[in-house]
Fold each of these.
Amino acid sequence: MRSTLVSQFGDPRQVIALVDAERLPPGPGEVEIALCLAAINPSDLIPVTGAYSARTSLPFVPGFEGVGTVSRVGAGVTTLKPGDRVIPIGASGLWQQYLLRPADWCFLVPDDIDDRQAAVSYVNPLTALRLIEALRAHFGSLAGRRIGVTAAGSAIGGMLMKLISGEGAEPVGIVRSERSAVRLAAETAGEIVVADEGNIPSPLDFDAILDAVGGPFAGDLIGQTLQPGAAFIQYGALSGVPVPIPAIQARADVRFSFLWLRTWVHAAGRPSIEAAFAASFAGLRSGLFSSRIAQTYPLSRLDEALAHQADPKRDGKLLLDTRC
Ligand SMILES: NC(=O)c1ccc[n+]([C@@H]2O[C@H](COP(=O)([O-])OP(=O)(O)OC[C@H]3O[C@@H](n4cnc5c(N)ncnc54)[C@H](OP(=O)(O)O)[C@@H]3O)[C@@H](O)[C@H]2O)c1
């Protein structure tokens, strides 16, 4: 079967190989899924670079998000049958034609959610919901709070802007270019500012920041924009650089935390994850969690897809069609 493999850490465009892999039968408790679409997310590529080498074993098949149809079931599986459309989660491995996964880690997709929506219904919607929960845990009610969202032009950034508005709070989308600001303004309500390292417009003040950029830019925001008692939640590092420790140490009056979906998923238990998927599917129906899809590539043209993913002018999510 068509598959991909990372055998050494490095630049994703250099080290993710297209390979022909053996198709194995499902073991007890497992199902085989004939995958159809998988997303390309920043969080798929970061482990490939070796950024999390302490908790990433080589070799591995990348891809954390996608959708497919159960093709075979192993002994003892009673909850799924061939033909069921599912989202398999809990480990990487979706950038290939067939995937073996414990039935307990597969979640049924309602019939009215199409494959393209289902393929992006997991990582960003569930993380956005967790981030709002984390803000609620800090503030109680979010009503009236000013909340900054960095990299607001990203797929999850747009979701966060809408969710924050829905809580009665004031979202402020922070983007790095006028081009992103124009695109975001067409899609979401709320204030939008263009800012980058060494260039924070003033006055800018926040009760909380949800940060996916990190690096010196996050340090500037922490030093210059957070109110006493504010929350700073980091959930990404698109700059490739951590938040500077001195910036954190200088703000004893701010609550700092990290949020990783993966940590929650492995602790939450199936009923909580099912409830989160139900919220995601509802958000897909209403448009709250819709993601712009820029292009779908056959898996066999992975090199083109990865080149497009690295293009700063990319205008939406890329999907891989794992069937061809
Ligand atoms: N912690 C978790 O569990 C978790 C879960 C989901 C996502 N995330 C993180 O959330 C972030 C966004 O993910 P996504 O899937 O929404 O990404 P995406 O849709 O691929 O969007 C990435 C966008 O972010 C903006 N961007 C990239 N680098 C930037 C930088 N250095 N400074 C400012 N903006 C930058 C760019 O938008 P413009 O072209 O508009 O500037 C880029 O198009 C990633 O860091 C990802 O790892 C984390």
Note: The first helix runs from residue 12 to 15.
Amino acid sequence: MVFIKVSFKAALAAVLVVMVGCSSSPTGRKQFTVLPDSQMNEMGIQSFTEMKKETPASSDAKLREQVQCVADTLIAVLPDKYRNQDWEVVLFNDEQVNAFALPGYKVGVYTGLLKVADNQSQLAAVVGHELAHVIARHGNERVSTQLATSQALALGYQLSGEESPEKIAIFQALGLGAQVGIILPFSRSHESEADLLGLEYMAEAGFDPRESVQLWRNMSAGGESKTPELLSTHPSNSNRIKNLQANLPKNLPIYEALVAQNKEAKCY
Ligand SMILES: [Zn+2]
């Protein structure tokens, strides 16, 4: 049995600390985050362990190598605090059109996503966006909001076994709602922040940032009968593509400079 315990005292202390000081996201947005990063990392690691128990990894060595390369190339341009960590990247063998990144330095990609992401840069668009949710500490904001409205966290979470309310709540907070079937979509401000940061990571890592626009077009075009799981936790709207396009002039030259030096990403 896997338990994550947050004592009521510790949670209360954290709330009090935040009343004194408020944090800011990488884009300068004010944030309400009460949990220590170490606690969020622990939740991410435990959730990842659960997912690995439930879903087998792909045995396709070539695909695994491609996904690992895209993730590693993006991780190399993250802020030092994140870049210098030992990230675990898993390609799950599952038809879901989905991917995620978790506090605690974990990245998960589903084989289903590789049918919608047509090339290395489109895969980088998704992984970069997911990494941005972690670096901007959106999970902490979501948990903190839940903490502020209930004492559920103070009672301790049970992550193993059946889909308990505790497990669902923690998966939701980490943006894994599609996995437990109860969706808490990222807010519009979290989505646009992850898009902007993700676009920067792509360009700096040598992936073509224009492919982010094509990826989200592919995602909403579907072609398949059901909505991609990624869209249920990462709702798209007409503004997403517009905002990405508006930020291309800033990011495209960074990518083009790398191309000119033959330093663009070459994963596949
Ligand atoms: Zn998102």
Note: The chain is about 55% helix and 10% strand.
Amino acid sequence: MTDTELTSGDFTESAEPYRLFAAWLKDATASEPNDPNAVALATVDTDGLPDVRMVLLKGFDEHGFVFYTNFESAKGREILATMKAAMCFHWKSLRRQVRVRGPVEIVSDAEANEYFATRPRGSRIGAWASKQSRPLESRFALEKAVAEYTARHAIGEIPRPAHWSGFRIVPSQIEFWHDRPFRLHDRVVFTRAADGGWDKDRLYP
Ligand SMILES: Cc1cc2nc3c(=O)[nH]c(=O)nc-3n(C[C@H](O)[C@H](O)[C@H](O)COP(=O)(O)O)c2cc1C
């Protein structure tokens, strides 16, 4: 199947999900006004209460879907407690949705370091200065922390904080949805099979 076919209504014929996701993300990159890689990330807390927020997808391949965050944030603690998560992309301009769910791995230190080094200097300082998800006394307290870490790392490379790294959702399921008239949408779900391949099912809309 060609990439053009993958992005057309024939997506339900696709035999595996990664090339299809790559084609849809490419389409979204061309058509979304900003952040085509923005994705809602769902976790559960220790009471089983769901939690959801946006993150940016920073990598994907046949090993899974990667994003970066503060491991001491709410989402970081929730994932570290369960090692499970789900994601939902919605590209409004394309009327498409992709859902991903599965167990979570921590990316290697080498992978996290490599990505951290590509971030703008201000973002690397921010990773040190922000105690993400914990109460902040005032905007001034944050600016003070930024100034302190800027001074501390005035010279040389800024190392990656140990509490800042990446998670990889290793999908057990990936579902593709495309809007069709009268809410009779196309849905296809790929489920990991025991032999490492994918089972594919169409779903009622
Ligand atoms: C479009 C968008 C992208 C975001 N990307 C990230 C991200 O990649 N990593 C991150 O930690 N927070 C990101 N955020 C902020 C999160 O949505 C959230 O506010 C923050 O991570 C704290 O979430 P938590 O308290 O549930 O851990 C993003 C927010 C938006 C709106």
Note: The pocket of flavin mononucleotide is lined by residues 35, 38, 51, 53-56, 67-70, 73-75, 132-133 (CB under 6 Å).
